[in-house]
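Dear Dr. H.,

I hope your travels went smoothly. While you were away I took the liberty of generating a structure for the chain from your last submission, since the lab meeting agenda had it listed for discussion. I wanted you to have the full record in hand beforehand rather than looking at slides cold. The sequence, exactly as received, is reproduced here:
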Amino acid sequence: MSTCNQPQSIMKNLLLLLFIASSYRAAAQKEPDHYRIATQHLQKYFNAQQADKMYAMFAPGMKENLSFEKTKAFVTQLYKQQGAMQQLVFKKKNGPTALYKTLFSKGLPLGLRITLDRQQQIIGLRFQPYQDKKLPVLIRNKTKLILPFKGEWKVVWGGDTKEQNYHVESQAQKGAFDLVVHKKGKSHKNAGQTNEDYYAFGKKIIAPCDAEVVLAVDGIKDNVPGIPNPMFVPGNTIILKTANNEFLFFAHFKQFSVKVKQGQKVKQGQLLGLCGNSGNSSEPHLHFHIQNVEDTNIAIGAKCYFDKIKVNGQIKGDYSPVQNELIKQ
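The corresponding predicted structure, in token form, is as follows:
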């Protein structure tokens, strides 16, 4: 099926691990001259899109693990996503690996970890999301939630294991659900070739609690079933912030169906939009998860419990559904 699998997001597709050398723990120190020179060259070559000169900075062992073609493709993709590398701010050095906060002309800052050998050649290079402070800890929701829909839906992916829920491999989405509407054991009528064939398509998605809208995206086209759109992974999206600083993430809304705007306060049960098939989705469904901060690139997912729901016909309180269960309010 689906979904916000990056695992996953465009940014995480950029977190290409070129090669990781062994790391060592040591006291932080001032920026060594040879690291300063190396990163200055790296910045210059990246901004000029001279992948060949960047590749020439790699040690022989790294070149064996990474071809020039892959290096060039990575440099091109990162530049397209982030723009020019404007500044590298040295943060610390542990053993042979130095960490830099890397600022780009567009996009979020990235952390650059670079490792040099004794010949001052690169043996490790890695970009990853960067954060200046510790993120708030969120294990589960404190806010009492109702289901974000009416009627009975099926949990296609949900639970704590990889077998139940492939989202567990994604930091932000590890507590996520993918939900569809089933009738007679199928999620669609006819051959399932159009979105209208799917029972979930166009169903109302509602607010599980009182909250504030912190993100609302509404202009992404719905896919032809079976042809996902990995360029805009979550598709049309809403993020709600609860009074307890929990961020409720809804993905794959139907194009132009989102009924709320950023900054708007919503009440429990209020219409958010209609279920669709936008983004990295192979059929109409709802992707829903909770995370600890708004920014999905650095967020950590939390487990979601609903206050009182019917699970396979039985009422359960403070319950987190799992794969293949039929749930309704």
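Two observations you may find useful: The first helix runs from residue 10 to 13. Confidence is low (pLDDT under 50) at residues 3-28.

With kind regards,
E. W.
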